[in-house]
Amino acid sequence: MIELTTEQVQDLAHPESTPIRLVNPKTQQRFVLLPEEEYERLTVSDASPWTDEERDLLRAEALDALAWEGMEAYQDDQP
Predict the structure, then answer these.
(1) What is the C-alpha separation between 79 and 76, in angstroms, rounded?
(2) pLDDT for the residue 58
(3) CA distances from 53 to 10, 43, 46, 49, 68 (A)
(4) Alpha carbon distance 11, 18 (integer Å)
(5) pLDDT of residue 20
(6) Cα–Cα distance measured from residue 52 to residue 58, given in angstroms and rounded to the nearest whole number
(7) Is the pLDDT of residue 71 over 70?
(8) Is the per-residue pLDDT at 76 higher than 70?
């Protein structure tokens, strides 16, 4: 396990600056330092296929976000 530097510990004391961003000086590859609890929450996923109901709900949310009201004439199921 890698221990935090003094500068990183100071950065963690300021919530507005989290997550801490790190860069490998040799490769310029960037990393984000997250609390372990946040990492665990983000990595727990349901990889099962979406149900028809889930897809319909997502479609409805997307259409609402795009202000689809009044565009029924352009839907495929309309004559």
Answers:
(1) 8
(2) 92
(3) 47, 24, 16, 11, 20
(4) 7
(5) 81
(6) 10
(7) no
(8) no
The number of C-alpha atoms within 13 Å of 7 and in the hemisphere containing its C-beta is: 3
* Strand, helix or coil for residue 20: strand
Predicted confidence (pLDDT) per residue in 44-65, tens digit: 877 788 899 999 999 888 888 8
- What are the helix (H) ranges across the chain? 6-12, 36-43, 52-65
Tokens of 34: 């997250």
Instruction: Report the length, in residues, of the chain.
Output: 79
> For the chain, what are the domain ranges?
1-68
